[in-house]
Amino acid sequence: MQEQLHLFYTNDLHSNFEQWPRVVSYLKEAKASSSMENNSTWVVDIGDHMDRVHPISEAFMGKANVELLNDAGYDVVTMGNNEGITLSHQDLFHLYDEAEFEVVCANLHSLKGQEPNWLKPTTTIKSVNGIKAGFIGLTAPFNAFYELLDWHVSPHFDMLKACIEELKESTDIIILLSHLGLSEDQEIARRFEDIDVIIGGHTHHLLRTGEHINNAVITAAGKHCSFIGEVILTWDHEKGKLISKEAYATDISRQPKDLQTEQKLQLLTDKADSILGETVVHLERSIDVQWFKHTKIMQELTETIKNWTSADIAMLNSGLLLDQLPAGDISYGDIHRVCPHPINACVVEVTGNELTEVVRACFKKDFTELKLKGFGFRGEVLGRMVFAGLHVQTAFHDNGEEFVKEVSLPDGEALKSDVTYRVATADTFTFGRLLPEVAKSEVKDYFLPEFLRDHLATTLKEKFSRS
């Protein structure tokens, strides 16, 4: 006898709730079809379902995401970095308290001596005919952030080896839910031949028909749930082994929306608006936001970051603020709308020479007009960099492009080439190659859990509220 096992999965929704009713609609149809054929069907999520860019996730600190996963009938999930490092320790500790599914993450541990009740390294589910599938979860090791929040992520290869040894004795199939990224998934497949399936995420890669390495099929469905993934496993009961592994990702852009889910999201939206509606500050005048010009609000926000981090210098890009703030009562919802990014402040150490190169790079057109996607940034363009504790004199070329003539300290003293300066900025610039001198700094002091919008609220109350 042969038995088919169907796994449907999502990854990296990032609270793109406009798409969620299509996801639920597709899953309902898929599960109903599979059930009619008496096949086992499981639904899993690979993390970053939550993103505090959305007011619903912000208002409920991710618990509404868990509620939506419950409603959709998920069986197993693992955590992404957006669940892990954008919440306080207490909020993450209780994030999945009401989960009706299993949460597996083998490499996450609390540094406070007590683990959440919901956190498990592995779980096992039986098929309709008794096949035992073991699930392991792993998340990306951002320990520079996690440890500031009293969590630790252990080396995933070590944890994986221990989990596999345990599951080999008690299960027929081993499935890894990996929020590590494609290159790590490929290396895991090469190292661990006992893994049958690796369902991935984090790097937003799309594998339409999977990738076979060693004994494993690797799959992932891109980002924002534009695609739903499916893995079909065929078990031969007479041979006592898997004889087929297939992986697909289906475009659901034309899928009808589930009406019940749309109604639930509207209810959550109304509740979120109420939670975020409390007045933070009253403005006598509207506050203008300009992405390519110097503005008072960006200057004051940059000064706030400099003072709060006790840095020598601070620098923030104007594209962090997405819209103006009107005169009148300003709520936290308004502040979230204007500054939705899950971005923290970070202090790096750079030499005077390196800082000069950073400043010059920030005024180049290809930097200010860059339409950045990722690294926590949820805006349109990076925009003009604004500085505190630093004087930058610029001029213009004949073609109208701005360039840096001189960089000095506020008292007019020139930067010293070999002196180290502590510079506060958005943590965005500590990743990738946007500003190499910042990214390669050996010192990176991240300030968590406050987001830049929390500092924006402070700035508005201290610098722009009526007396």
- How are the strands of the biggest sheet laid out side by side? 6-4-3-2-1-14-15
Alpha-beta content class: alpha/beta
Strand coverage percent: 25-35%
Oligomer type: single chain
Rg computed from alpha carbons, rounded to a whole number of angstroms? 24 Å
Q: Describe the global form.
A: globular
Biggest beta sheet summary: 7 strands, mixed
Give the number of helices. 15
Termini gap: 79 Å
Mean pLDDT: 96
How many β-strand stretches?
A: 24
Query: What is the helix content?
Result: 25-40%
Low-confidence stretches: none
Keywords:
7-stranded mixed beta sheet; 24 strands; globular
How would you describe the overall organization of this protein?
This protein has helices at about 20-35, 55-60, 65-70, 80-85, 90-95, 145, 155-170, 180-190, 260-275, 295-310, 330-340, 350-360, 365-370, 435-440, 450-465; strands spanning about 1-10, 40-45, 75, 100-105, 110, 120, 120-125, 130-140, 150-155, 175-180, 195-200, 210-215, 215-220, 225-235, 240-250, 280-285, 315, 330, 345-350, 385-390, 390-395, 400-410, 420-425, 445. The protein is an alpha/beta fold and about 475 residues long. The strands form six sheets. Strands 6-4-3-2-1-14-15 form a seven-stranded mixed beta sheet, with helices on one face. Strand 14 (about 225-235) and strand 15 form a beta hairpin. The model has no long low-confidence stretch (mean pLDDT about 95).
List the helices and strands and how they pair.
Blueprint: E1 2-10, H1 20-36, E2 40-45, H2 55-60, H3 63-71, E3 76-77, H4 81-84, H5 89-93, E4 102-104, E5 108-110, E6 119-120, E7 122-126, E8 132-139, H6 143-146, E9 151-153, H7 156-168, E10 173-179, H8 182-191, E11 197-200, E12 211-213, E13 216-219, E14 227-236, E15 241-251, H9 259-275, E16 279-283, H10 296-309, E17 313-317, E18 328-331, H11 332-338, E19 345-351, H12 352-362, H13 365-368, E20 385-388, E21 391-396, E22 402-408, E23 420-426, H14 436-439, E24 444-447, H15 452-463
Parallel strand pairs: 1-2, 2-3, 3-4, 4-6, 8-10, 10-11, 11-13, 17-23
Antiparallel strand pairs: 1-14, 5-9, 7-8, 12-13, 14-15, 16-18, 17-20, 19-23, 19-24, 21-22
Helix pairs in contact: 10-15, 11-15
